[in-house]
């Protein structure tokens, strides 16, 4: 099949490259000429394991092309995927301007019958709106087109794997023929396909992300309660997850969710609900809980030290999660800014997000190129991202570099037994703190009964 993909951001590029990998002839279009030049030279503009190799391979095998010209990119396309960004407006609504520009370019260029697929996350009803825009602006009256909504569920850092081994492919269309065509394109992935209406497909994407965000905020609230009642969140989550109705995934307590999707999509769904005169109270709380959760580590440190003024704090991990250089809505943005405001001296390390972090974090932050240098003579350590390198870092080095290390682990990722052995002071999320080689509940529940 001859496919064009508009937008070479995260979703567009991964989609285009993977469709080429399963045998389709794909042209990726982007208005950013610099990005297109970079891609033509076989380089990926984003960090994503395995992506660059697939770009090089599929270009060499003649299935993958890049252009910044709509006319060149859309000519003779049988299917056009729209995968441009839908960033947040100030009020939380999705900014659809790039999407509408793409629709107008399509209307201007199409010269044969075509199926138009929306990959971007869009408010419910956008498929209908795009259809009207294209119909109105179409320059060639003799061509016809059908709309499909085919939302993506890719996780950064494992996007290639998710494309090939995802849980489901959602194909929303009001045209049986168009849905069958997209089903045919996706068959080689061997992933269960579920066909719906366009609006249901658009809703599935928002509902899925909002549900996952809810799971995270829920477990974070339970972890806060565990601290107060001396239960251990790791055991609680494990025990809960054994119930198949709950599921074992997405029950890791920590300093809240970040990234390019959950914060943006939960806010957008709040706005969508509001516009439909529906007060989505539960989702509002999910968002609020997440904001509060980003502060818990700093609050613990303030309680522990009294003041953070002049304290040397090493921050390990800045990206919103491991295996990505993405800093969008990363908890580190809130945490580090707060630490600097509180007078702390911050040294920071991340395996690959430092270049992006430098542009966003306060200029007082000193960036180091390895963990050892970042923790040298620090008063305490904040772990914000569970990179394997940070999880597997030799704990004895904390002792030799810091003397009496104090660690605040925002991802519950260190080995508590080893920490106890080394007498390291350790504060995590939803678990007792380890202090002077003892484990202390935050507030023990007193026995108030009378002896019988
Ligand atoms: C997410 C969805 O998983 C994906 O399906 C969607 O299409 C895009 O958004 P992504 O943003 O790449 O993907 O990251 P994900 O792995 O889902 O993690 C999101 C955030 O939640 C991270 O900050 C992560 O640290 C946090 N998280 C995740 C938790 O705090 N606890 C968990 O148990 C899981």
From TrEMBL:
Family: Belongs to the UDP-glucose/GDP-mannose dehydrogenase family.
Protein name: UDP-glucose 6-dehydrogenase
UDP-glucose/GDP-mannose dehydrogenase C-terminal domain mapped to chain residues: 314-416
NAD in keyword set: yes
Gene this chain is encoded by: ywqF
EC number: 1.1.1.22
Keyword set, alphabetical order: NAD, Oxidoreductase
InterPro entries named among the record's database cross-references: 6-PGluconate_DH-like_C_sf (IPR008927), NAD(P)-bd_dom_sf (IPR036291), UDP-Glc/GDP-Man (IPR017476), UDP-Glc/GDP-Man_DH_C (IPR014027), UDP-Glc/GDP-Man_DH_C_sf (IPR036220), UDP-Glc/GDP-Man_DH_dimer (IPR014026), UDP-Glc/GDP-Man_DH_N (IPR001732), UDPglc_DH_bac (IPR028357)
Stored Gene3D superfamilies: Cytochrome c1, transmembrane anchor, C-terminal, NAD(P)-binding Rossmann-like Domain
Enzyme class, broadest EC rank: oxidoreductase
Pathway(s) it belongs to: Nucleotide-sugar biosynthesis; UDP-alpha-D-glucuronate biosynthesis; UDP-alpha-D-glucuronate from UDP-alpha-D-glucose: step 1/1
């Amino acid at each position: 099949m001859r496919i064009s993909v508009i937008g070479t951001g995260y979703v567009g590029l991964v989609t285009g490259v993977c469709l080429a990998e399963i045998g389709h002839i794909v042209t990726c279009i982007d208005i950013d000429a610099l990005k297109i030049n970079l891609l033509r030279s076989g380089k990926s503009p984003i960090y994503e394991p395995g992506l660059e190799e697939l770009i090089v391979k599929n270009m060499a095998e003649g299935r993958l092309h890049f252009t910044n010209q709509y006319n060149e990119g859309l000519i003779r396309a049988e299917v056009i995927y729209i995968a441009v960004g839908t960033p947040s407006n100030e009020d939380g609504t999705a900014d659809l301007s790039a999407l509408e520009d793409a629709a107008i370019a399509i209307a201007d260029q199409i010269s044969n019958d075509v199926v138009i697929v929306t990959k971007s996350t869009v408010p419910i009803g956008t498929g209908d709106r795009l259809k009207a825009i294209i119909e109105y602006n179409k320059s060639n009256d003799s061509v016809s087109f059908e709309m499909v909504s085919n939302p993506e569920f890719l996780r950064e850092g494992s996007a290639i794997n998710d494309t090939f081994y995802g849980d489901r492919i959602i194909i929303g269309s009001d045209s049986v023929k168009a849905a069958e065509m997209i089903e045919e394109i996706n068959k080689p992935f061997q992933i269960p396909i579920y066909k719906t209406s366009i609006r249901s497909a658009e809703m599935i994407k928002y509902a899925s992300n909002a549900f996952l965000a809810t799971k995270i905020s829920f477990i974070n609230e339970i972890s806060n309660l565990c601290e107060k009642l001396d239960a251990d969140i790791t055991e609680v989550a494990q025990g809960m997850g054994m119930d198949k109705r709950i599921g074992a995934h997405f029950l890791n307590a920590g300093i809240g969710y970040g990234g390019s999707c959950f914060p943006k999509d939960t806010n957008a769904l709040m706005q969508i609900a509001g516009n439909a005169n529906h007060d989505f109270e539960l989702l509002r709380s999910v968002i609020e809980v997440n904001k509060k959760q980003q502060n818990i580590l700093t609050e613990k440190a303030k309680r522990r030290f009294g003041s953070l003024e002049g304290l040397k704090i090493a921050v390990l991990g800045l990206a919103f999660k491991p295996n990505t250089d993405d800093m969008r809505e990363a908890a580190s943005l809130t945490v580090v800014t707060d630490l600097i405001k509180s007078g702390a001296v911050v040294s920071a390390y991340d395996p690959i997000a430092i270049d992006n972090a430098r542009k966003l974090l306060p200029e007082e932050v000193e960036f180091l190129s390895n963990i050892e240098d970042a923790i040298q003579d620090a008063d305490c350590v904040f772990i914000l991202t569970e990179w394997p390198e940070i999880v597997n870092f030799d704990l004895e080095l904390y002792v030799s570099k810091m003397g009496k290390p104090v660690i605040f682990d925002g991802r519950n990722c260190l080995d508590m037994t080893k920490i106890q052995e080394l007498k390291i002071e350790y504060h995590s999320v939803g678990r007792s703190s380890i202090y002077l080689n003892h484990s202390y509940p935050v507030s023990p529940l007193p026995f108030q009964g009378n002896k019988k």
